[in-house]
Design a protein that fits this description.
The chain is α/β, with parallel strands linked by helices. Helices cover 50% and strands 10% of the residues. It is built from 14 helices and seven strands.
Length: 335
């Protein structure tokens, strides 16, 4: 069942080609380093309004050696689901027919029992099989367990991926400690904090998440009682409310992009930037609501009219005198 940890597991590698290359190396396919990727729609529905079929992550992978690109379907499995025994062959056939490229099905599993189940060939037919689907599987048995800080520091993204695969390991505290120490050495504070948040999202158990939060407080939070620590904490307190609002806006923009892609729409870079740079929460809410039922992108991003029901921006008392810009300007121009 899709959830935050499930979505993080399958959605992490597609945006990180270097870590993806290392994961593919574990399969022994001989794909050289330096691949580039393009994210493709994940809707495999033949009749979207009647029956929805949603894949996890789909990529067009271009090899640096000039050989034909291929389609990579990444499915995250945190448990055994017998319905996937019919869904996966369908997905592979659908993608092969749609893109006319070879299709690689990669299943990511966080426990050995699920990995063993997922690796079984799936046969369709009577007598001699008409179709055979053999998933490639990455799980605790063939993904390295990163147990040294220097190894994690050498490739933080790949180390995070390995951590999730081993998230049910009895020594998860030791694995998380190694990762935390490696992150603490990263001088890019913004990237470090982003990855720390993603790691928490990808952990399926509350026990592991609690360990990780405690590590983050120990390793990353400045101590009170020192001049530098008190100054940093004071600054954090002043910027906390502003950060929360920015986080809400960024989260809504990310949800909107994900919904649009799940609906099968192709986004231009200009439209993507329009969403990610928008700071008007009511406008983002309006776009999101439209995207649920829209049949074209023009319907989603049309200028708001007087008939649109747009939620008013939530403002604290001290900010009520300062009207927010963006949607108000658009309304004026529309009228």
């Amino acid at each position: 069942m899709p959830n935050v940890s499930h979505d993080t597991l399958h959605g992490f590698l597609p945006g990180r080609p270097k870590a993806l290359n290392r994961a593919l190396d574990l399969l022994g396919l001989g794909i050289p380093p330096g691949v580039t990727t393009e994210t493709l729609p994940t809707d495999a529905s033949s009749a979207p309004k009647m029956f929805t079929r949603q894949m996890d992550s789909v990529l067009r992978v271009v090899r640096p050696d000039g050989r034909d690109p291929f389609i990579l379907l990444v499915e995250a499995q945190t448990g055994i689901e017998t319905k996937k025994e019919t869904s996966w062959p369908y997905y592979v056939a659908y993608l092969r027919d749609r893109y006319k490229l070879e299709v690689l099905l990669l299943v990511l599993c966080v426990d050995t029992a699920t990995a063993a189940w997922a690796a079984r060939p799936l046969h369709t037919g009577l007598g001699r099989p008409t179709q055979v689907t053999v998933p490639h599987v990455l799980g605790p048995a063939n993904v390295p367990r990163v147990s040294r800080t220097q190894d994690a520091s050498a490739d933080l993204d790949f180390a995070a991926f390995c951590l999730w695969i081993h998230s049910n390991d009895p020594d998860i505290e030791g694995i998380l400690t190694v990762m935390g120490e490696a992150l603490a050495q990263d001088t890019d504070r913004e990237a470090r904090d982003d990855l720390a948040g993603l790691i928490e999202d990808g952990l399926g158990s509350e026990h592991a998440r609690k360990i990780w939060r405690n590590l983050m407080e120990t390793l990353f939070t400045p101590r009170r009682g020192t001049i530098v620590g008190d100054a940093r904490l004071a600054g954090q307190e002043e910027g906390r409310e502003e950060g929360r609002e920015e986080g809400r806006v960024a989260g809504k923009a990310e949800q909107l992009l994900r919904l649009v892609e799940r609906r099968g729409f192709s986004l231009t870079e200009e439209t993507r930037q329009r969403v990610t740079t928008c700071t008007d929460m009511p406008l983002l809410d309006l776009w999101f609501d439209r995207a649920i039922d829209a049949t074209t992108l023009d319907e989603v991003f049309a200028i708001p009219s007087s008939t649109d029901r747009v939620p008013a921006p939530a403002q604290s008392p001290e900010h009520t005198a300062a009207p927010r810009q963006g949607l108000t300007d658009l309304r004026s121009s529309a009228n």
